[in-house]
């Protein structure tokens, strides 16, 4: 409690059913005039982009629409978006979607105010200037990119996911409206929900955790454990969707301010090499990394078990109670249909390359147990053989 902390989250946070309707007045109060709406074709096709642009029209706010963002946004996506931002003479960005549009929007905003190549911003705090204002409208309860200082862009030439941790990329307004999440299919709901759970669990045990991040992460685990299965089973369940919106949001506030671990380091490589959805990669690896980390923080894992609804009262030891956290994660993964690594496009012959890249990933340093290259390889192998 004696150390000082610098805490980051958006200036305005809107959350709850129908809250997206409030963005017009907030944008006008900021004196902004023309938005580049950044999204993807799926979000546009289901009508969510139009919901937002109708709100802009009702408030007399001009906009241009860019929907070429890929599931794992690339440097080319970022450069194309930046060209449109300049050509359309926009002064702010509205990102609509899950982590992909959010991350692409952050990269576009950083490049506009700082210049250069997005590759140069890989790592921690590489920009000098704040991004253009971003209104980040989340449509999946998962990545929490709308509230974090993190973003991830794929370098399609090197086949590497570049992780940027940069306070200058933080959105100005974050929007989590569960009504915008109702159309998400069960598989996407499951993957993004497990991504959110991974954020919460890694934030709770990371080396950078502290009192506030712990409180947020623990509450996020409770939200997600009690809501995800119901949201997967019935996407129209607004209570479950709201619980997941809160869980994802609160987990994002936590990990953005304390860091993550090797679940993300390893998952990033599966995304860049095989274009595997980020939430799926995290969900597959999570229990195996938890098993590896358990000896470093058994007390916290026992608390995670409680947050996920496990009765730890009869456990003979803290270690036995901690094992219940792994059981809870595996049970939830099975219930929501997370696949196995051997059912994916993962090729074990790539293990050396993937492990070496994971060791260099910015998230690796936060893992509660210091991992070696051989440790990373062993976890990949165990996950593949499961």
Structural account:
The relative contact order is 0.11. It is globular and about 65 Å long. The model has no long low-confidence stretch (mean pLDDT 96). Helices cover 50% and strands 11% of the residues. The strands form 2 sheets. The protein has a 6-stranded parallel sheet with strand order 1-9-6-4-2-3, with helices on both faces. It has a 3-stranded mixed sheet with strand order 5-8-7. The chain has 14 helices and 9 strands.
What's the N-to-C terminus distance? 42 Å
Which structural category do the helix and sheet elements fall into? Answer: alpha/beta
Number of helices: 14
Mean pLDDT: 96
Alpha-carbon Rg, integer: 20 Å
Shape: globular
Strand order of the largest sheet: 1-9-6-4-2-3
How much beta, percentage-wise?
5-15%
Helix content: 40-55%
Given as residue ranges, the uncertain stretches (5+ residues, pLDDT < 50) are none
Q: Please provide the ordered H/E string of secondary-structure elements.
A: EHEHHEHEHEEEEEHHHHHHHHH
Main pleated-sheet profile: 6 strands, parallel
Task: Give a brief outline of the structure.
This protein is of the alpha/beta class and 386 residues long. The chain has 14 helices and 9 strands.
């Amino acid at each position: 409690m004696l150390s000082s902390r610098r805490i980051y989250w958006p200036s305005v946070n809107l959350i709850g059913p129908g809250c997206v309707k409030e963005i017009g007045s907030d944008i006008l109060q900021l004196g902004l005039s023309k938005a580049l709406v950044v999204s993807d074709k799926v979000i546009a096709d289901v009508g969510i982009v139009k919901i937002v642009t109708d709100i802009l029209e009702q408030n007399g706010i001009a906009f241009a629409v860019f929907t070429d963002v890929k599931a794992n946004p690339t440097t080319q996506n970022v450069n194309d978006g930046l060209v449109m931002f300049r050509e359309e003479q926009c002064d702010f960005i509205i990102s609509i979607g899950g982590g992909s549009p959010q991350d692409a929007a952050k990269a576009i905003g950083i490049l506009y105010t700082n210049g250069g190549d997005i590759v140069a911003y890989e790592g921690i705090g590489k920009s000098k200037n704040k991004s253009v204002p971003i209104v980040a409208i989340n449509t999946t309860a998962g990545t929490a990119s709308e509230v974090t200082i993190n973003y991830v862009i794929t370098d399609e030439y090197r086949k590497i996911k570049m992780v940027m941790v940069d306070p200058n990329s933080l959105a100005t307004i974050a929007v989590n409206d569960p009504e915008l999440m109702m159309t998400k299919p069960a598989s996407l709901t499951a993957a993004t929900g497990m991504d959110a759970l991974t954020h919460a669990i890694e934030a709770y045990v990371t080396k950078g955790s502290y009192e506030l991040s712990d409180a947020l992460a623990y509450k996020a685990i409770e939200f997600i454990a009690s809501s995800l299965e119901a949201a997967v089973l019935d996407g129209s369940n607004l209570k479950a969707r709201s619980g997941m919106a809160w869980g994802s949001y609160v987990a994002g506030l936590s990990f953005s301010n304390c860091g993550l671990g090797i679940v993300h380091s390893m998952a990033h490589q599966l995304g860049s090499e095989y274009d595997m959805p980020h939430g799926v990669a995290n969900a597959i690896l999570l229990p195996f990394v938890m098993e590896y980390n358990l000896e470093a923080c058994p007390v916290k894992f026992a608390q995670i078990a409680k947050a996920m609804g496990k009765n730890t009262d009869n456990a003979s030891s803290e270690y036995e109670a901690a094992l219940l956290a792994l059981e809870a994660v595996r049970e939830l993964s099975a219930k929501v249909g997370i696949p196995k690594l051997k059912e994916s496009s993962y090729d074990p012959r790539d293990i050396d390359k993937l492990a070496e890249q994971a060791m260099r990933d910015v998230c690796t340093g936060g893992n509660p147990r210091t991992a070696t290259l051989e440790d990373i390889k062993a976890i990949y192998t165990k996950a593949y053989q499961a």
